[in-house]
Amino acid sequence: xxxxxxxxxxxxxxxxxxxxxxxxxxxxxxxxxxxxxxxxxxxxxxxxxxxxxxxxxxxxxxxxxxxxxxxxxxxxxxxxxxxxxxxxxxxxxxxxxxxxxxxxxxxxxxxxxxxxxxx
Length: 119
Known about the structure:
Blueprint: E1 7-11, H1 15-27, E2 31-35, H2 38-43, E3 52-56, H3 64-74, E4 79-84, H4 91-98, E5 102-105, H5 110-118
Parallel strand pairs: 1-2, 1-3, 3-4, 4-5
């Protein structure tokens, strides 16, 4: 059995949410790398395969579904969890169709975050 990824990438443009989410993920024993935009993640030299990406849906610049599609070729093993505080019609379907593993609404309870990262 392949070991679970221990690296979590976070793309979140709200600095306070990013800090809180990073702290929660670290407290669960994961290494965290946070980015304020999809473009910053794409420009990063960090390996993206064998990681989990917590991706805010509503970002300035490249949006969630578009970023998922861009990452599909670059990092096919990247497990993407889309998170949103504003669930809009059709967004869940578009993200899952683009390749996201799951779609969750914020705020994310710590127990749900732990289950997501351990799955």
